[in-house]
Structure to design on (295 residues):
């Protein structure tokens, strides 16, 4: 039976793999590729507005930094990656309501094994562009606190945007079982880090607060919000945020390329503020929308 897609426009999309476009049913990666062998890849999530990829240069910076840290060889140039992205969008007729999953693997091995010395052909580039409206659009999120901790730098540095997402997936499973939208992941000291898929912000006494980017990914949308706050003269700070501070926040929202800004109404059964989208959350959503509309 043919499965139903979240968006039927994606039924015949074309996907870029190593210099060529393939129909989704024919888009394949070798069983010898490092992403299959050990999740050995780095990636970025990008959103398209008005025919432009939002913050493309910042995403490429992070992709290149991640690949360099992982000692990838044969990394394609920024120009080649940019060309692949826009060729993929053109082939699919996409100019808006589009999310791109950009993946760079270490490439194909000559035999199965953990060591990168078996990688002889250079990196593989995958550009997966889908019609995808922002998730949670207009919804008040319900979260739980996960029992699964976010990786600290002493284990796997979150500054590497890698494909090893098992702990995030386990946290998401807990959220699914609890019947809520996502799960808050704590660091090893018990402070809030991020959700399984998004960065966290709270508002308390008129100040915008977000966890230090130590055990969480320093997201591009997160960085953009902090830049907006600075430009608008809105008070903000990065700090350790305990779970009690989340419960007692005046407002809370998440950020990410997939969902932009999503208000949180409940965490672990506790209502956050009035349990509805707050005034400051609305203001930052408006500022963010103005920015993306100006592209």
């Amino acid at each position: 039976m043919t499965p139903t897609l979240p968006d039927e426009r994606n039924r015949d999309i074309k996907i870029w793999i190593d210099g060529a476009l393939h129909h989704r049913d024919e888009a394949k990666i070798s069983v010898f590729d490092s992403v299959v062998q050990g999740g050995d890849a780095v990636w970025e999530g990008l959103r398209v507005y008005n025919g432009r990829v939002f913050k493309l240069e910042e995403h490429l910076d992070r992709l290149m930094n991640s690949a360099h840290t992982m000692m990838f060889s044969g990394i394609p140039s920024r120009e080649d990656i940019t060309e692949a992205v826009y060729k993929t969008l053109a082939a699919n007729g996409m100019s808006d309501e589009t999310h791109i999953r950009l993946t760079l693997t270490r490439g194909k091995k000559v035999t199965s094994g953990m060591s990168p010395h078996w990688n002889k052909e250079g990196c593989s580039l995958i550009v997966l562009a889908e019609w995808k409206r922002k998730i949670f659009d207009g919804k008040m999120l319900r979260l739980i606190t996960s029992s699964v901790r976010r990786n600290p730098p002493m284990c796997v540095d979150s500054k590497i945007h890698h494909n090893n997402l098992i702990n995030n997936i386990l946290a998401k499973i807990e959220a699914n079982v609890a019947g809520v939208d996502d799960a808050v992941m704590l660091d090893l000291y018990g402070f809030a880090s991020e959700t399984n898929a998004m960065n966290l912000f709270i508002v308390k006494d008129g100040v915008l607060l977000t966890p230090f980017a130590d055990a969480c990914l320093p997201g591009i949308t997160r960085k953009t919000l902090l830049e907006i706050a600075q430009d608008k003269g809105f008070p903000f700070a990065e700090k350790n945020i305990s779970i009690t501070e989340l419960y007692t926040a005046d407002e809370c929202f998440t950020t990410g390329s997939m969902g932009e800004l999503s208000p949180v109404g409940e965490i672990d059964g506790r209502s956050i503020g009035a349990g509805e989208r707050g005034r400051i959350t609305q203001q930052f959503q408006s500022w963010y929308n103005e920015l993306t509309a100006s592209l």
